[in-house]
Amino acid sequence: MNKSARLVVLISGNGSNLQAILDACQSGELPAGVVAVISNQVDAYGLSRARKAGVPAIHTAALADESRRAYDARLADEVARFQPDHVILAGWMRLLTLAFLDRFPGRVINLHPALPGTFPGTHAIQRAYAAWQRGEIDRTGVMVHLVPNESVDDGPVLATQEIFFQAEESLEQFEARLHAAEHRLLVDALKMVLNT
Length: 196
Ligand code: GAR
What we know:
By secondary structure, the protein is an alpha/beta fold.
């Protein structure tokens, strides 16, 4: 069992899943600590959450004319400084190339608000809700998976949870239920990874 794993969390926005990780580390539920939070967006609210928790909060912006691989190599250098056991993509909304992934083989974990093989990319929740309204699906879900290569929101699955749509619910109501489920699933999946 890994008593105090070092986690670097990459975010692009609100950071509610980062908050779930911070809380679980703080309460002792996760045998881990968040050693850095890095955002590609300067105004990501998750950076404020990190600062409030006393965790280094870093904005790493892509430079003008910087290639994707060059950015990823620079990002990997930044992450590596913190010697992470795992790198968690918790609402990180930028594709990562092998220039980043090959630096942390088997150690990059992504959260995605859909079931394996469905709705990869952005706006997964809204697209699933629209598909339900068209009568095409009766459920969607959330998943946590490893990121071995450049496939989008795809890779060996660590945990999933199905979420059924409920009659008459609005997109906002559905989103709130889904986010609550992903906060729980992400912590449970990390617990499993850290305890094995
Ligand atoms: C979460 O719903 C996460 O699953 C999703 O971004 C949101 C971030 O919310 N990730 C993706 O869509 C990845 N393709 P948060 O900033 O409040 O944690």
